[in-house]
Amino acid sequence: MNKDSGDFSFSFKALGSIAAILTAGYAIGHHKEQKSLKIRRSRNRKIMLASLPLALLTTGPLTRKLIQKNVAKAITILTTDEYGKNVMELWTAIHRAGVQNIVENNLRATQGTTINRPIGSSKRFDGFDNLMFVPPQMTMLSKSGDTAVDMKVTLGPKATKPLTVNIPLLISGMAYGIALSEPAKIALARGAKLAGTATNSGEGPYLKEERDEADKYILQIANWPWGLRTDQEIASADMLEVHISQGGQKGVFYVAPDEIKGKARKLMGLSPNQGISGLPAPPGVQSAADWPILVNNLRNKANGIPIALKLMSTDKIEEDLGLAVDAGFDVIAVDGTQGGSLVSNPTMQDDFGIPSLHALVRAVRYLQNRGVREQISLIVSGGYFNPGSCLKALALGADAIYLGTVPLYALANKQHQKVIPWEPPTVLVSYASKYNKKLNINLSAERVSNVLRSMAVEMEQAIRGLGKASVKELSPSDLVALDTFSAELAGVKRAY
C-alpha cells in the first residue's frame, strides 16, 4: 500500500471515529434535553442518523474479520470432527426421520401420554393439483366481466325448509369449549353472516351468543352427553347435522377436569371436579338399527329443516352412505383424511380414512347409482385451502364445501403480533388459552368475511372464464387431467 493510500485510510478511519463520537455525544445531549424544543430534537436526530453510516463503516472491517474467523472455525469443526462428536449428526437424523417426527417423539418422551396435534395432518395426499380447467376460446366465448354469476346453493331440497346460502362455502364445525373460545365462535358467526353463508356450532355445548350473531346456523347433534340438544336449541337452527366423526378424528376422548374451566364447564353441566368422556355415537344410538330412529326423532322436532350427517370418509364409504340414505338424511357431509381437528392425535390425522378427492368421487358415484343424487345434498371437506380446489370439487359433483382451517387462520389475521414469536397464533382462538381475550372480535369477523368473499369472487371470475353464469353449470367435462391416475380417479379426460 502506498503512502497516499495509507493517509487516506487513516483519514477515513479518523473521520469515522469522529462520526461515532458525534453520534454518542448527540445521543447523550438528546437524553438530557428531552424538554427542549421539538425542532431542536428533530435536528439532533437528523445529525445522529447522518453520522451512523460513517460510524458503521469504521467498525465494519473489524466485524467482518470477527465473523470470518468464527465461521471458518465452525466449518473446520463440522468438516473434521468424527460423527460421534459432530452436531452434523442431527442433520442426518432430521433427513432420516423428519423434523416433525423428531419433535413429536420428544413430546411423547416428555409427556408420557398421547399428544394432540393442532390443525391436522401435514401429509401430502392425492389431490386436485393435476386436474385443470378447460376454458373456451375459439369455439365458444367466455362470459363478459359484468355477467352476474349465480353462486347460491340450496341444501336439503327435499326438506320442507331447505337451507339456502349465497355462496357454496360454509364454515365447518369447530367446537366451543372443547376447541375454540367464545370470542372466536362469535367472530366466525358474524363473519359468516357478512359473507352470506352459514356457520356450524361444532360438537361443543350450545353457545347462545354464537347463535345470536349468526344468520344461517347449523347445529350439530354430537357424540357427547349434551349431544341431542334441547328442543329450544333445535328450534333455533336452520339445519341439524348428526356428527359421527371427521377427517382428523374418530373415537372416544376423555377430557380431564382441569382441561375445561369456566363458562363451557357450566354449559356442559359438569360439577367442579368432573371430567367428561365422548360417546361412540350420539346418545341413544347403540347399533345401525338406531339411525333411522334418531333421524325420525329429530325430524319430529326439526320443524321442516334439513337433517344432515357428517362422517369421516373411509374405504367403507359406500356402506356408510347406504345406511345414511336408508335412514333418511337430507344432506351428507364427507370429510377426507386431510380434515383437521384441535383435539386428535397424529395417528388419527395421518393414518385414518381416505383422501378428500377419493371420497368425493366415490360419494357422487354411489348417490348417482342409488338414484338419489338430486334429492340428497353433498358437502365435502378436508384440505380445501384455495378457490381452485373448491371449484374443482363443485365441478366433480359437490354441492358445497366446508372450510375450517381457512377461516381459522383468518381469525388471527393482523393479530399475530399479539403473541408471536413466543406463542403460535392458535392461542388467540383456543378456549384453554390465557391469550384468547386478546382477540379483537370485530377485526376477526371482518377477516373471516373477507377471506370467504375473496374466494367466492375468485370462483365467480373463473366461472365466467369457463363461459358459464352459474355454479350449477359446472361439470366434470370442464376438467382435464395431467396424468393417468388423476384421470381415472376423477373420471375425466387426459391431457395427452
Automatic annotation (TrEMBL):
Xref: Pfam families = Glu_synthase
**Where's the Glutamate synthase domain?**
158-467
Q: Where is the signal peptide?
A: none
Superkingdom classification of source: Bacteria
**Record-stated family:** Belongs to the glutamate synthase family.
* Name the UniProt record assigns to this protein: Ferredoxin-dependent glutamate synthase
Organism annotation: Dehalobacter restrictus (strain DSM 9455 / PER-K23)
